[in-house]
Amino acid sequence: MHFLSRSAVFVGIVLARTVIAAPTVLEERSVSPLSASDLSSLAPFTQFARAAYCPTSVLKNWSCGQACSANSDFQVTLVGGDGNGVQIYFVGYSPSQNSIIVAHEGTDPTQFLSDLTDLNILMDPLDTALFPGVSSSVQVHDGFRNEHALTAKTILAEVKRLLSVKSTTTVTTVGHSLGGALAELDALFLTLNLPSTTTIKAVTYGTPRVGNPSFAALIDSKVPNFRRINNKNDIIPIVPGRFLGFQHPHGEVHILSKGNAVSCPGDDDATDAQCQIQSVPNVFVGNILDHLGPYEGISIGTIFCT
Ligand SMILES: *[C@@H]1O[C@H](CO)[C@@H](O)[C@H](O)[C@H]1NC(C)=O
């Protein structure tokens, strides 16, 4: 019975899509493929996002195996969190990227998916003590907001310190899954709290929707250098649903297969079949295993800290 009702929903959606899909042929906006060098330039950030799943004991001396050795010149200066009450995070300086890096750990995908498909998800305004000047019409998932607030001030203080002692003006936030949502919030938070001479970038992986369309518009305007990388048929990037008032900002990169990824235009409204909302129109047709990667050969998650 359960299966039948799912099938009925699925068939309904397929029919609806067929009807809706026809006019998109005439759409002007199109995807652009990433070049091989653009794709490989993401690998160091993928490894930072992966490293954030490693225990703090090995992050402190940057000995977390492949994820650390892939960025062997990284100077880690702050490690925090416990992976339980507070997601693990680290801050440091990467000479080869000429950037300060802020990375956040993600969480168990299956539990995360069930949390994000909960129809009672709350959205709340950002705390203006952390996000000065942001309108109360800008709203985000309250769980993400609260988790971000736990580490925000500590991270800001360390980033300020590093900006004063390292010869860089660039800060890059990274994370996968819940860590991607935290990195998205950190990118806005750091932009609003650091001098305008600072360049803030964000590279996130398998990121859920974080806030409402006003939040997405704010990221678009304040964090132009934002990339959220989705792998194949991962479900997490399509939750919480748009019908609940959530919307991604710009910056989608969709990995279709190894060596083959496209940059998708717009804010979560792509009409090209290669973009996430078209290839995974609903949670029943996605694959949660794609959440773990591989992102261009690199898998991310607790079991991939080796
Ligand atoms: C790093 O710290 C871990 C945990 O304390 C320890 O086992 C390891 O030997 C250390 N590695 C180096 C290279 O110092």
TrEMBL record:
Gene Ontology terms describing biological process: lipid metabolic process
Highest taxon listed in the record's lineage: Eukaryota
Keywords: Disulfide bond, Signal
Database matches in CDD domains: Lipase_3
Pfam hit, one: Lipase_3
Catalysed reaction, written as an equation: a monoacylglycerol + H2O = glycerol + a fatty acid + H(+); a diacylglycerol + H2O = a monoacylglycerol + a fatty acid + H(+)
Signal sequence bounds: 1-16
Fungal lipase-type domain residues: 106-242
PANTHER family named among the record's database cross-references: ALPHA/BETA-HYDROLASES SUPERFAMILY PROTEIN, FUNGAL LIPASE-LIKE DOMAIN-CONTAINING PROTEIN
Similarity field: Belongs to the AB hydrolase superfamily. Lipase family. Class 3 subfamily.
Record protein name field: Alpha/beta-hydrolase
